[in-house]
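User: Fold this; tokens only.

Assistant: Input:
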Amino acid sequence: MADEILIEQRGAVGIVRLNRPDKLNALNLATMEQLVAAMERFDADPETRCMLLAGSERAFAAGADIGDMVEAGVVEMYNRNQFARWERLKRVSKPIVAAVSGFCLGGGCELMMHCDIIIASETARFGQPEVNIGVMPGAGGTQRLTRAIGKAAAMDMVLSGRFLSATEALQMGLISRVVPVEHFYSEALRVCEELCRKPPLALRVAKDAVLKAFETTLAEGLEYERKLFYMLFATQDQKEGMRAFVEKRPAAFTGR
């Protein structure tokens, strides 16, 4: 079971890779628990500034592990409280970059949408096809997908089970960048390393502010943004960043 999640520290980047090739990285309770626990450890580690979440070239994650729930009833599903792990993932404050290739379906698409920057290969395919097995998205698919690509496209994906190509997903605003399949992982790692050179506190509060836009009115979001903007003037990184800009030298950020 431990080998179903591969964990690596590469400089200031914490890397978590799904490793269930025989299941196309399908997500079960144990896999999600390991994944979220690893992300939480990286989030609490002062030496880690960014996280990379990846699958394989063939599949980021092809959905939930259906064998894990095929015979479950309402009471069992309610008591297992599987979405509590997703709520924990939502509270991770450091940037998460996703490296996505191949199948990114159902729970895999929902997992991807919990990430902040999404680097996809040209072979990536995105979908919420749960209706085809008699259910519907349950880890945020109907909500995050609609906010990302709009009602019409989300309805098409959720009701018909339609897959999006990487190009379509990029055009609709579901993902951040598309690269050749041979570069999807290296490009995601490069983005992580770039983020690690940014001021850590500013990254975390900027992520928080962007996510807040989905939960507030414009007026409330603008007020929240301004408070965070002013707060950053109490940090050493703000002084270092602005002085380095004026002095025309690289900034050395410390997260203080």
